[in-house]
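Q: For a teaching session next week I want to show students how multiple molecules come together into a single three-dimensional assembly. I've collected the sequence lines for a complex. Could you give me the predicted structure tokens for the whole thing so I can convert them for display?
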Amino acid sequence: MSSLGPILQATNVHKRYGATVALDEVSFSLYPGEVCGLLGENGAGKSTLVKILSGIVVPDAGQIVIDGRAYRPHNIIEARARGVSTAFQELSLIPTLSVAANLFLPRPKVNVIGLVTMRAIEEETETMLKEYGVSGVSPSTLVGDLSLGLRQRIEIVRAMLCRPRLLLLDEPTAAIADREWLFSLIDSFLAGGTAILYITHRLDEVRRLCKRCVILRNGKKVLDAALEGITDDQIFTNMAGRSVVEAYPVRESNIDEFAPPVLAAHQLSAAGVNDITFDLRRGEILGIAALEGQGQSSLFRALAGLERLKAGSIEVNGKPVRLRSPHTARDAGIVLVPEERKSEGIFNDLSTAANISIPIINQAARFNFIQTGKERQIVERAAALVDLNNRFLRPNINALSGGNQQKTILARSLLANAKCLLLFDPTRGVDVGTKHIIYQVIRNFAREGGAVFFFSTELDELVHLCDRSLVMYRNTIVAEVRKEELTPHLLLSLAAGHKIDADGTT
Amino acid sequence: MNQTSRDRRRPLPSSLFAALLYVVMFVIYSINAPSAITLLGITDLLNNTIVLAIAAAGLTLVILAAELDLSSVGVIAVSNVIVATVSTKIPAGPFVSLLLVCSVGLLVGLINGWLVAFLGLQSLACTLGTMIMCQGVALVILDAPGGEVAAFIMNRLTDTVFGIIPVAGVILAAVVSGWLLLRRTRLGIAIYAVGTDAVASHLTGINVKRTKLGVFGLAGIAYGLAGYMLSAQTGTGDPRVSNSFLLYVFAAVAIGGTSLGGGRGGVIGGVIGAGILTVMQKLLFAVGVADFYTNIFSGLIMVVAILFGNLSAILTLRQRVPLIRRPNREYSVH
Amino acid sequence: MDNTQSRTVSFTMLAVRPETITAVLVLLATVVMMLAMKALNPTFGSMGQIAAILTTSIFLVIASYGQGLVILLGGIDLSIGVVMSIAGMIIAGLTNGSNEALVWAIPVTLLSCFAIGLVNGLGVAFLKVPPFIMTLAVATAAFGVALGVTAGSSQRTVAPALQLLMSAQICGIPIPVLLIVCFFAAGSLLQSRTAEGRKLYAIGSSIAAARIVGLPIEALTVAAYGVSGLCASLAGMLLAGYSSGATLDMGDPFLMPSIAAVVIGGASVTGGKGIYFGTFAGAIFLSALSTIITVLSLSQGWRNIIQGGIIIIALILQTKQWYLQKMANRRLTGQGLANRALSQTSKV
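A: Of course. Below is the structure for the complete assembly, covering every listed component.
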């Protein structure tokens, strides 16, 4: 820590959206030469803070000072002008433009008559890519042709290019398998007396990189301290408001070993999926661990009937089926809870109740006319299963929080005799209370004989909830880990492509 | 471990197939109408093509930014009747009326752009509204076909320069050059970015609203110019809009390889597409197909154009593309 | 848990929701407009005139229902005008001034226009052609066919029964007015209270979610466009009866208003939102407006300017309506949302 004043000083930053307070009088400072971790559960306010610092969102109250001067940007350009640059979690790259063009957006260099000097830019890009240690990428390659890991690197390089005073890295390692590249980049970056705000939920990265961390919970800052003196459990408790042990329901396995597997795949190949074989039994919770973009999304889509198979087969209850459409999959008892809640999960314009009843709406109808009483019965029953308060049923679903929306989708999935739930990161963007309920729902479903296929980016969930976990890497399954051996560290190494030797070492 | 990029070869220009198709059609046409290869024939062909081509050029810009614009026929009608009513009545008529119609087009375009980008209205419905309003204005200015177009416009603009280069060709070349320049400006890159992913563009710092305002404005100017050229071609003013022409404008853009979903394609394709449709029409006429069949063809052509456009996109990109789709991302633009 | 709120978990789309308010407001605007007209011109607004306005609104009421269904899906039908004309020409041509052929002429007309609608639907659902292009293309092609078949000759005479239907009265109420009421009831029920109607709303709201849930998207799309063709043909037949004849362009003035009625009524052009009550109110409003424009002797040009302007104003007002909806939702979900994660934030 230097004796210079802070680069960033935020005082009582406050932001509310309607009835919800996203940031509640948050204050903290960042000093030159330090990497500060920003931790928090989903919905804690991290992303709002990032947006405010990046210039996308204007706070309702509070002051932010950068290098001694007031900081009130109205857009990204103004933020950059003051030396604040962000590598977004949702990449801000344009896939149809080249790497060079993306790196220089939005103000690529122009010549006298205002034309962009592509060749000069590409040359400069070439130099810069070397400087930042990104190899194997040509400046003229379209970003869309790059792997997700490379794209994330470009995003990070872009943020660093303008030599900011304050660099915001939002979940920068979600897709990168080689994290050392980033870590060494950070070390050299800090030499310039700048500061980095490192947003992540991975404790091991925070410990490796940061000396200090700030933890948000429910919009408030609950911890701002040096990492040396704090244990992992303390961090977790501050983030989640409860200790690790409480978070997960008791595990008892009820796997039916004798019946044919509810769902089985043999050498399954489809777009983005390569030679996958596994089976899933009644009462089993099977997990999948993977970095971003390793084929898990395509696998789920194929199992739900959304993608055509190129090779291989799928069996339901021991009998081969052709899942030609999600309708066929549903008939077979396979229900998908999709990745993108807002665009694929909810019917934004319908009421919550209508969202729940839609798959089986014909059951609540006589001569095709909807019987409101019957619909209400069905919906209330489903809502009770996910602990969704009845008062949320009538309004539009877009008035509900992310957590309640997710509960709605789960409630919908539990109707219509689902035998196998495909859950794709079901706790994404969901508050702590709802997560707990979702875990209960999963456990209950398995206990009553259903089967769950479960992808999560939170490795703790896989460790504590699953009976077994598969690991996907580069569109295929690279490992299977039994309950006894499940640890987050192991899953992470396997997901990053490291191999395990016979004696268990990597 | 090795993360190399799959360094594909650059995709072929999206208008390549359209260009090939045009050549084929032109050859067939010239076989049936030998006069097509003469200077007179080429001038004639260019004259027939230019209105559609300029309109398609303008529409392409809007479509590249992932919006729709139905107002082309409305602005063309207004421009046409303006020229037919004032070009003979004011000093420097041809020149002033050109300025006038381009300004009117720009105004309509800016209104469209403001409504769509700043008020957030849906572009299809909104430009439908402005199209109807424009037609109304055209009818108010001139309630029935008539009026008089200045002789200079009618004669000189449909003729040749230095006796060998058709004026229409020069104008087309100017439009295409304008596009080639625009494509390499910041605005040009921004158009493609916004059309591909408006949210990512916003995060990058591109001013999405201003970009959309820009494309609608430029398109409006193009439509004004197209209306001016229509006056040159027909020598008269007609306040009625033609539904099939609207269809043709979209068909031209689609055949040219521009994706109706935005982010892919270019003006050159639209111009070639206009050429294809015009040659096809002349071919049908030369072969002796009765006039009313062309209506049926218009309809069919349109559907085929879309399918063809998709096909050429698949082939020129040489992969089955789903471009990275991040639908409905969490950061909102407005 | 509040018991009263639990009891009022009513799923009637016709209950007092913002969409109903919009519809009522539009009807109110109609009344205000007519009163203003009456102030300007005291002879305006006789019972006979009002009856005439309601009678002539039937074409738009029916045609905009089909348009509304298609727009609910997120599409649009630009073939309605042409289909209306074709229907009129067919029924006139088949009946040719006498009632005998009516029995089979009506089904033939309905069926052929239904077929045109099916073509639209198939193109949109399976060929993935954008709706405005598909329907415009079909309209152009159909127009061409009709032009060729009729060789341009226009005037035909219609069966007297149809003409009688449009002009007669029961207990002093014009039959068309009774028909409007029945159609409104049937249409509303079909759109808002049936399972398939609910699915239309779902598809229009999020087609990706609809696919994942396994809804029959293609089938319903084809059906919706088919129904639209059906409605257009019904409207066309009635129009022929009213005009005692049919021409090839008589349906054209109804295309834009059919879209305008839907938009004015508060439906979203991107689909998933809006009730028939709104469209119905919009249709009445536009018919009244049309009559007023005629009485004011405004030229066709001004008519267009006003129509176009109304569409845009309605679109702008819609953005306000959704704001109203948001406020209503907030009140219904109550205050205990302190732990509500933000719908606008990203997943972290």
